[in-house]
Amino acid sequence: MTETVNLHYTDQGEGLPVVLLHGFPLDHRIWRDQIAALSTNYRVIAPDLRGYGESPFKGDTFPMHLLAADVAAVLDVLDIDRAVWVGHSMGGYITMAALRTLPERVLATGYVATHPHADPAEKRMQRIQSADKIALEGGSDLILSMMGVLFDPALNRKSEPAQRVYDIMQHTKTGALIGALRGMAERPDSVETLQNAGVPAVVIAGAQDQVVEPDIARTFAQTIDAPLHMVEGAGHMVMVEQPDATTEALESFLQRVSKR
Ligand code: MLT
């Protein structure tokens, strides 16, 4: 297995450890408001995944279980055995990979705008083709097309949340785009892993999400018997579009986990 890398991360607050994992192609700054709010009661750790933000880049393909191992290496450094893993979109796939390969490190799971299914063949092929195109031409077309689908259509693209997300995406290294696209393409289905996980879970979704549509989120929550928070006025970037509602949903879940 390829070696882990030393991720850049923030570590704020004290108490139950909560890891916030960003999606593709972003970095830990998408969680800015949740880090500030949740760290008054919890220890909030927010890494930049391999190749993203300030974390080092390594490898041609980033399998989800390898990205999960990078996160577990952060927990090792911090001397934390088990944490609540909260993942946005690809961060959710990484959380599912952690349940599959490192279940002893996972206390509870939060899924934000994500789903447990493997890619259908056509989607897998699109990801590989997109990775090949980015290797030749760079990632600006992909970033622009993502800007078209990441938010509630009603959100002004010049608003602070949209511009913050655009700025983060624009600075993503080409190799990290390629590595994650290839890694997501090869991820397995996680439904059975989640159904057998035996840890508390919550699903948070944007009611206007065009990437993980509300019906997929509803079915996901039902399939794993988890509470669902459907956030109005939010697309795929629910934590930046509706930061307070996202924090409240996470906070009520963490209170429940703390009482166990
Ligand atoms: C993400 O937001 O992490 C990605 O859209 C996930 C995906 O492409 O499946």
Walk me through this protein's architecture.
The chain is an alpha/beta fold. It is built from 11 helices and 7 strands. A 7-stranded mixed β-sheet has the order 1-3-2-4-5-6-7, sandwiched between helices. The protein is globular and about 50 Å long. 47% of the residues are buried. The mean pLDDT is 97. Bound molecules: D-malate. D-malate binds at residues 23-24, 89-90, 184, 211.
Q: What is the strand arrangement across the widest sheet? A: 1-3-2-4-5-6-7
N-C termini distance: 35 Å
Q: Strand percentage, roughly?
A: 5-15%
The overall strand count is: 7
Rg calculated over all Cα atoms: 17 Å
Shape: globular
In which range does the helix fraction lie?
Answer: 40-55%
Largest sheet: 7 strands, mixed
The average pLDDT value, as a whole number, equals 97
Order of helices and strands: EEHEHEHEHHHHHEHEHH
Bound molecules: D-malate
Pairing-aware structural class of the strands and helices?
alpha/beta
Low-pLDDT sequence parts:
none
How many helical stretches?
11
Short description:
The protein has 260 residues and is an alpha/beta fold. It has helices spanning 32-38, 64-77, 90-101, 121-137, 140-147, 160-170, 174-185, 191-195, 214-223, 238-241, 243-259; strands at 9-12, 17-21, 43-47, 83-88, 106-112, 201-206, 228-231. The chain is 45% helix and 14% strand.
Tell me the layout of helices and strands.
Blueprint: E1 9-12, E2 17-21, H1 32-38, E3 43-47, H2 64-77, E4 83-88, H3 90-101, E5 106-112, H4 121-137, H5 140-147, H6 160-170, H7 174-185, H8 191-195, E6 201-206, H9 214-223, E7 228-231, H10 238-241, H11 243-259
Parallel strand pairs: 2-3, 2-4, 4-5, 5-6, 6-7
Antiparallel strand pairs: 1-3
Bound molecules: D-malate.
